[in-house]
Amino acid sequence: QLRLVESGGGSVQPGGSLRLSCTASGFTVDRFHIVWFRQAPGQERKFISCIDGNDSAGKDYSETVKDRFSLSRDNNKNTVYLQMNNLKSEDTGVYYCAGRSRGLHDTCGQYINPTYAGLTYWGEGTPVTVSS
User: Fold this and answer.
1) What is the rounded CA–CA span in Å between residue 132 and residue 61?
2) What number is the average pLDDT over the span 118-131?
3) d(Cα 67, Cα 77) in Å, to the nearest integer?
C-alpha cells in the first residue's frame, strides 16, 4: 500500500524544537517531491516547506519558517525530516506531508498549493502545540 505517515508532533514551549518525520511506504521518497503543510485551528492548510524528489534535493521554505525550519532526507529510512527550531505559538497546528512523483523538469516549489489534485499521497497529520 502506498502511503505517507507523519510522526514526531507534540507539545513544546515557545523557543523549543521538534523534529517531524514523514515516512513513505510503497514508494521511494527520493523520487517524489515531498511537501509539508500546516493547518492551524480554524484555518486553511498552508505551505511550510518542500524537498525535491531527485539527487540534488533542492528545498523551498515559506517566509514564516525559512530561518527556523530545515528539511532533510534519509533515503535508507525512506523518510523526510522537518526540523523545527525556535518554535512560536503561531506554529501551532496539524502538520501534513504530501507527495507527488517527480517529473522531468519540475521542482517541489510548483506544488505548494494544498488544493492541487496532483499531490497524490497524503499523511493523516501530526499535531504540534506551541504554548507556555
Assistant:
1) 26
2) 95
3) 26
pLDDT per position as a tens digit, 55-83: 889 999 999 999 999 999 999 999 999 99
| pLDDT at residue 84, rounded to an integer | 98
Asked whether the predicted pLDDT for residue 114 surpasses 90, the reply is: no
User: Using CA atoms, how far apart are residues 71 and 53, in angstroms rounded to an integer?
Assistant: 13
Q: What length does the chain have?
A: 132
Position 93: which residue type?
G
- E strands, 13-109, where? 18-25, 32-39, 45-51, 59-61, 69-74, 79-84, 93-101
Query: Which string of b and e fits 30-58 if b means at least 16 CB within 10 Å?
Result: bebbbbbbbbeeeeebebbbbbbbeeebe
The four Cα atoms 51, 53, 56, 57 give a dihedral, to 10 degrees, of 20
What pLDDT does 99 receive? Answer: 95
User: Could you tell me if 106 and 50 are in contact, meaning their C-beta atoms sit under 8 angstroms apart?
Assistant: no
